[in-house]
Design a protein that fits this description.
The complex is a heterodimer of chains A (701) and B (246). By secondary structure, chain A is of the alpha+beta class. Chain A is built from 29 helices and 20 strands. Chain A is globular and about 60 Å long. In chain B, strand 6 and strand 7 form a beta hairpin. Chains A and B meet through helix 3, helix 4, strand 13, helix 7 and strand 16 of A and helix 4, strand 3, helix 5 and helix 8 of B.
Chain lengths: 701, 246
């Protein structure tokens, strides 16, 4: 057989029930699905029967990376984890979580592209992977411990270079809103309790091997430098957020925060970011400061440095040092995270004594990070905190809790914005203590059901961001109009797709974006200004298809879809063009398997369709348009009752959205009435066997 | 292998486990022998080119990669550039710059507890780099096959792959653990300064690495391990010609 670069070549299968450890050949079995979510979906289609529930031993967990993980391709640090999603409601369906950190690279260096976990251990265990040596070990001494302690204890056994992916008490206690976490701050939501249900505390990996690059090494070096030259800041924002000497444009909403005069103030001594001219590849790491992006200017003086995944020059995790939080709350003075993890603690609160951009806000982040990242609690993209605020301020918590339990919380502290309130709340979620802790840990869908609340109320509230099936929107009509809405209908959890938002939010003026859009999607009309939408057109449907396929491609190759695709760049001399063929060039040179952009997109479509097929099979209906691809009412509602397409509004017209779904299904080659892919569509992407199986079950249109 | 080992005299300096003491001993040695070293430098052409005698590296390196730990963001792109662009594979375990091993808990590993460095400590990530040592070059002197040689134009100390027999003696000799061993070809490798444009320096997205004129860092950077000094009898006796006790 041909020898490929990129892939490690082996997939590890660990059965916790009979403690059998076996090896499969990645190329032979999974090459047509690349890696990552591709391997995950393939395993679930082939091996996990419909009707299986998340905590059944028959459910599996697939930790998978792709051929680019662990290489020098920029932004390759994410591990895709596929399982039956415990917060997907009312019926658990397939979902994926993605964690960054060092786990993906370390797994590859150990010699594996994926780990398939199956069965259930009869007592707590952890899996040790040191190159070819794999063992299942007793976890008695770490069961009951937080993620931090677990990592330390296992690092003592495997060495300080090991990467440990562990669950905390939340996962152990089968709290659906729980994470698996590695490398201090990198988590994947939803997976914690599935690991807990298998009595699996952690997977610790140490790898000393290498990944061969199939192509010519000078060519590889040139390609990497070329790719680096197209990078923006986090989320591929390609203009700075303030005027810089090198920049033609700026956008205050950009995550490219570096500027003359801004500095990592808690570094010793202080380090100024400087203006970060995009042509200077030795300054990429200074462009992004997500602590300052989320918490405001105050965060600069507390910034120690940037942090993030192996191999990624964009440091989207920010390390901050808050001595006052350590003094007041007895937590470590240094912490790091990004986005949901960074904002975890503060998002519960509506007010802080010193305002929403003050020090208490930052301290609440520190308390939240240290607790949530140790107990392993998930925020469901902020839905946990949005639900909590609504339930409290509308008096629902008071109604649903017994008086004794209600009074056991210091609600005065909560209302004032005292971060110490988190010490009362978060442990009760992790340990399922009391009605409130238990209910919040279920995730929105099951929580509403438990309290007899109506999901349709949640779907009406524009402030809640709730979408469907227990999960919120993730970059929808607030940024990308109809295209964003289409994307948010497609998954069984929040969509986690960034291809579309990374383009429209890149900071370039609309006329530049429209010029690029014409090159990529054939029409400048594919993009509108944010909050200045126009009626649906075929360009938007093409953009939606492209966005979804690139997401799956990235999740399978191990490129970060929080950063890619790279179709726009900060380079004026390129007319701000990026390169839509970066993925295929990286794949081709790394693996030695020549694939054009179109060929890779076809594989991505295969992977995306397999996700669709599993969802159809497990829901046992082809009526996807009606029963799955739903849109919450708030999308069509403007609190000020302005007409649709008024500048400054984000709401859309229901009839136009019906047309949008028609056009999207047509682009995909799916049946418009049901929203189910046709036999021919499956066949075209190489999934004829899948089509035959669905036909047998009466699930083809 | 065994007979080969027996052929060399292994002299472990009996300084116990105190790294600091061992480090000091090297410094003391350098101080004491300063005059002799200069004398030996004068003889250098004879020793280096003579062919008859053992290889003793006398030329100073011309360049050096230095680092600024407060700038390091722990992305390990330096390690990847080192191995991908030079070896055609992503293999940090053979990178000639070392970041990963200090990244989580710092150079003292887990045993520094709360006072540690790295992502789990105070955030500081130390990049370990080859010092391109002046004479006596520990790795080169330890090599039983004279496989570590000076390579112009940088005068980096480099492993001659043809000569390397994979015995790992050099690994034990480097106090900073900068010799790495590639299990794929059973050869040692070390920083060779990429002909004067080090890939790691080019690759650092935080400007934490610089290529500078050589300076002697052997006196500045504390060692990581207790060095095992191994010298062949031939080398030992050639030392004696210059370092005779007065």
């Amino acid at each position: 057989m041909k020898k490929y670069g990129g892939w490690a070549g082996k997939v590890l299968r660990v059965n916790l029930s009979d403690r059998k450890i076996s090896i499969e050949d990645t190329i032979e079995k999974y090459r047509d699905f690349l890696g990552g979510t591709g391997i995950g979906y393939k395993v679930f289609w082939d091996e996990v029967l419909p009707g299986t529930k998340p905590f059944d031993p028959e459910n599996k967990i697939v930790f998978a990376v792709g051929p680019l993980a662990g290489t020098g391709a920029p932004c390759n640090g994410r591990t895709a984890i596929t399982t039956l999603w415990p917060t997907c409601w009312p019926k658990a369906l397939i979902g994926t979580g993605h964690m960054g950190g060092n786990f993906a690279a370390e797994l590859k260096y150990a010699g594996y592209d994926a780990i398939i976990i199956e069965g259930k251990a009869n007592k707590p265990v952890w899996i040790s992977i040191v190159d070819e040596k794999v063992t299942i070990n007793d976890a008695g001494h770490i069961w009951g411990q937080g993620i931090r302690r677990t990592t330390i204890e296992l690092s003592r056994i495997l060495g300080s270079e090991a990467s440990v992916a562990a669950i905390g008490q939340a996962g152990e206690n089968l709290v659906p809103m729980s994470v698996v976490m590695n490398s201090y701050s990198h988590s994947a939501g939803g997976v914690g309790a599935v690991m807990g249900s298998k009595n699996l505390k952690a997977i610790a990996v140490r790898g000393t091997g290498g990944i061969s690059i199939a192509g010519n090494r000078e060519e590889w070096e040139r390609l990497i430098k070329y790719h680096l030259s197209l990078l923006g800041a986090n989320n591929q924002h390609v203009v700075p957020n303030s005027p810089q000497p090198w920049a033609e444009f700026y956008d205050p909403a950009s995550r490219w925060l570096a500027s003359k005069g801004r500095a990592w103030g808690a570094s010793s001594p202080v380090i100024e970011t400087g203006p970060c001219d995009p042509r200077d590849l030795n300054r990429i790491a200074y462009r992004t400061n997500n602590a300052a992006f989320y918490l405001g200017e105050i965060a600069w003086k507390y910034t120690v440095r940037g942090s993030g995944c192996t191999g990624c020059p964009i440091r989207c995790h920010t390390m901050i040092k808050i001595p006052s939080a350590a003094a007041k709350y007895g937590i470590p003075e240094i912490g790091m995270n990004t986005c949901g993890g960074l904002n975890f603690g503060r998002s519960f609160f509506r007010n802080f004594p010193d305002g929403m951009r003050g020090l208490t806000n930052v301290e609440a982040c520190m308390v939240g990070m240290h607790m949530a990242d140790d107990y392993g609690i998930w925020c469901n993209y902020g839905q946990l905190q949005r639900d909590f605020q609504k339930l409290y301020y509308e008096g629902i918590i008071k109604n649903k809790l017994g008086e004794k339990e209600f009074k056991s919380y210091s609600w005065d502290k909560y209302e004032k914005g005292d971060p110490s309130f988190l010490f009362e709340l978060l442990p009760r979620i992790a340990f399922k203590e009391g009605e409130l802790g238990t209910a919040l840990g279920l995730g929105t869908g099951a929580h509403l059901e438990r309290w007899g609340l109506s999901e349709s109320e949640w779907k009406k509230d524009p402030k809640l961001n709730y979408w469907k099936m227990g999960h919120p929107k993730h970059h929808s009509n607030e940024e990308v109009g109809q295209c964003g809405v289409i994307i948010n209908t497609q998954y069984n959890r929040d969509a986690q797709c960034h291809s579309h938002t990374n383009f429209v939010r890149n900071g370039l003026p609309l006329e530049v974006q429209k010029r690029l859009a014409e090159e990529i999607w054939g029409t400048p009309d594919a993009v509108d200004g944010v909050g200045a939408y126009t009626p649906m057109n075929v360009g938007k449907a093409r953009m939606a298809k492209w966005s979804l396929l690139r997401k799956e491609l990235h999740d399978s190759l191990s490129l970060c879809n929080w950063m890619g695709p790279w179709v726009a760049s900060p380079l004026k001399n390129r007319n701000y063009r990026g390169d839509d063929t970066i993925e295929s060039m990286l794949y081709t040179l790394a693996t030695g398997d020549r694939k054009s952009r179109e060929e890779l997109d076809l594989i991505a479509e295969r992977i995306f369709l397999l996700h669709r097929a599993i969802t159809i099979r497990d829901m046992n209906t082809k009526e996807m348009r009606k029963e799955h691809d739903t849109i919450p009412d708030w999308v069509f509602y403007d609190p000020q009752k302005r007409p649709v397409y008024t500048k400054g509004t984000i709401h859309l017209d229901p009839k136009d959205m019906e047309l949008a779904m028609d056009m999207f299904y047509q682009e995909m080659g799916w049946d418009r009435t049901t929203g189910a892919p046709t036999y021919e569509t499956y066949r075209k992407v190489g999934l004829e066997e899948v089509a035959k199986e669905l036909k047998k079950r009466g699930l083809l249109p | 292998m065994d007979t080969q080992k027996d052929g060399y005299e292994t002299t472990e300096k009996g300084l116990g486990s105190l790294l600091e003491a061992r480090f000091m001993s090297r410094r003391d040695f350098l101080k004491l022998s300063g005059i002799s070293v200069i004398a030996l430098t004068a003889l250098n052409p004879f020793i280096a080119r003579g062919g008859a005698g053992p290889l003793i590296i006398m030329e100073q390196a011309k360049g050096l990669v230095i680092s600024e730990p407060t700038r390091c963001v722990g992305c390990r792109r330096c390690e990847l550039a080192c191995t991908e662009y030079n070896d055609g594979k992503a293999k940090p375990s053979i990178a000639r710059i070392k970041v990963g091993r200090n990244m989580n808990f710092g150079p003292k590993g887990l045993y520094a507890s709360q006072n540690g460095q790295g992502n789990w400590g105070n955030g500081l990530i130390i990049q370990d780099l080859c010092k391109q040592c002046p004479h006596p070059v520990p790795c080169a002197d330890a090599c039983p096959n004279d496989a570590i040689v000076v390579s112009p134009p940088t005068n980096a100390r480099v492993v001659d792959k043809e000569k390397c027999i994979g015995c790992k003696m050099c690994q034990k000799a480097c106090p900073w653990e900068m010799m790495v061993f590639d299990s794929d070809n059973n050869k040692a490798t070390k920083c060779f300064l990429c002909k004067g444009s080090p890939k790691c320096v080019e690759a650092c997205p935080a400007g934490a690495l610089s290529y500078v004129n050589w300076v002697d860092l052997t006196r500045e950077v504390p060692p990581r391990i207790a060095q095992v000094v191994v010298t062949s009898p031939e080398k030992g006796s050639s030392c004696n010609t210059c370092h005779k006790k007065r």
